[in-house]
Amino acid sequence: MWTIRVLALTGPVLLLSMLWEHPLAYFLFALGTTVLAVALMRLGAARRGNRAPNRRLDLILGPLWIVLSACLMGIIYYADSSWAPWGVPVGAWLLLAGLWLLPLLWVSLGYAATFDRFGLRQEDLHEVRRAARRRGEES
Amino acid sequence: MPILSKPWIILAALTYLAVVFAIGLWAARRTRDARDFFIAGQRIGLLVTALATMTASYSGFVFLGGPGLTYRLGTASFFICVSVSFTAALLCWTVAKRLRLMSEVREIYTVPDAFFHRFDSRLTSGLAALALLVGTIGYLGVQFRALGVLIEAIFGTRAYFGEASPWVAMALGISVVLFYSVAGGMIAGVYTDLFQGLLMMLAAVAVFVTAVSQAGGPAMLVESIRTSRDFGPAFLDPLGGVPVMTGLGFFFVFSIGTLGQPHMLHKFYMLDDPRKLKWMPLLIGGSQTLCVLIWMGIGLAVPALVAQGRLRALTRPDDAAPAFLLNFAPELLAGLVFAGILAAIMSTADSFLSIGSAALVRDLPLALRRPLSNELTAGRLAVVLIAVAAALFSHFYGDLIALLGTFAFGTFAAALGPALAVGLNWRRVTARAATASILTGLILNLGLEIANRYQALPFASGVLPSAVALAASFTVLFAVSHLSPPPAEPAPDMQAVMEA
Q: Which of B174, B263, B429, B456 has its CA 20 to 30 A from that of A39?
């Protein structure tokens, strides 16, 4: 149930952070965005309504959330900073590496690796097709 | 731009158009009924579905609007495209599986169909169709504007038609898209998408390499921009050129908002075997990542070239890609890239024409209990009608391609995203909550966009109207779901879909 509670809270938090003209609101908005993204993935991965924490799923989604949140917050924190390795501002490095390239392989391969558990099982597909046939017969 | 002296460019563009025509003709013969026209008979394999999803999502917005936006805002514009790293997985985990399974148990061709069968409410599906039509006209407007800019650049129509040139160029492009959309429907759409997707990836990689090398290599590119009076170090800082909330808002809307994009969602119905979704995030995300290179390559090379004094400052940021290709890319590569951009624009336009026509001749009549007897013929007529409406909208909106695209993307995101993403996965979401969420997203996005134009937004500086609409739509969905009585148990087949 916590996934639903978290999701229900993120909308108002995001709205409040857009109304609040304060630097802390930026961090809140960034956090709200990453929480919403990862909680939605977790909601979709739940089977038979079971949204309890799952270690294997959390091994994929946890690091994803940490990287996305840390990079977004880093970009905000280092905005206008003069720290620029090889002439490129650190915020741009975080954007390109942390938000773009790193999560791509991690989450795509993680999805494929856990597909038979949190994606679509063969038996679930058979169950759906059986239900479709029953509906056809009844009508 | 007088480019008749560059025959390779024209040859590449004409060859591309000829191939697309040929696919349209071939597909027309294979389109026998509405199922073929709207979801390609549900017999499309993994690679074609993945590339069709990618090409539908990447359009004139990315290939012309993206570099233009980077020229104007700097690397802040990358907040729009970097989320491709995880949005395909987000889509597959949250909505793709259940949408595809729904099409196993019910006759579902469109996104409003999914709303109807999930919530058993004509009001909900009718409103979804209305949101779809509004967003479709906006998104098609983006494609048509980009098509006009590109064809004008390729064929130099300004020299012959003067002020009427953008209209002539746009009409030429629209007529090609209309031909294969009307004739071949979604079958033509997905197979041109396969051809176009491969072309787009090839073009994007080649142009990225050329752009960086033309700017003198990565180090020189960065140094030119950093030391330039026009651009400076802030241009390279993701939050240097825009208010913080604009950059974060781009990331929020273009990541979470993917869940409501019908041109992408619609493609999942066509997949022949739902278990093939396993590799979908890698294929979609990987191909999108390659295509983003054109945005980043041209978007950074053009300011560097301007800073180096090798290119005049642009008066219209949307000209960044044509200006680079015509002046700095080898002729054959420019031809290939122009064809690739044409491909991107046309594939997206085609997807939207198909989706918009389905909303007009199928979803809305069903919601009003007035189903049409011949959906195939009516669908073909609707395609023409929607194209005319979009061309007019594009003319009167008058803004950067990317900003027009942000509005259209935001409309889908806020109106359809929350109700679909949560509604397909949580049984407690009621029809009333979904309806309220769609209405909130649609009205707020339109209303705040208008308020923003008159600088009357009551939010912190830089907040995007579509970000507010999307967050509000989620909030309303949960609030109304909690406040309304629990819904009845779903039918056994829908229950099986939601529990899979």
A: B263
